[in-house]
Design brief:
The chain is of the alpha+beta class. Helix content is 19%, strand content 44%. It has one domain: Pnp Oxidase, Chain A (Roll). Strands 1, 2, 3, 4, 5, 6, 7, 8, 9, 10 and 11 form an eleven-stranded antiparallel sheet that branches.
Amino acid sequence: MSDTAGTEPVTELDARFSSDGATPTGWIQARDQLENAEIYWLSTVRPDGRPHVTPLLSVWLDGALYFCTGSEERKAKNLARNPYCVLTTGRNALGEGLDLVVEGEATKVSDHARLQLVADMYESKYGSDWHFDVRDGAFHGEGSKALVYEVVPVVVFGFGKGDEFSQTRWRF
């Protein structure tokens, strides 16, 4: 899979938040986790400035995360007003794993070919319960319509945990 810019991102270790002797986490490891994670948390901003956070499913494709939501759901309404968002994933444990924070701008996807590819990836990753038909610039499944969003990372933070703690930043 390619990354967001077609080249490797700039990788930096923040020694202030890392164990002595820690090394930056490699982008390939972070990207693999973005591809293989099952649950992601989306953070958006409500019209009155309060945060909104919700779990969702996502797929990584060609250097971006894709997710879907109904047009009347809070996250879609928030993104219509302010497309900047954060997607996180990781392991809910202190002694192991890698937590990732992806910052970017959510862009609505309407291209039929791209939507079909994302729909196929959803079903491949999550199973037949997540089958979507693509028409009219959206996903359709079991009587509902879902908008699809693409988030191309601008910056990703990785928090390595376990015997060695590290904070890595990848800039695109």
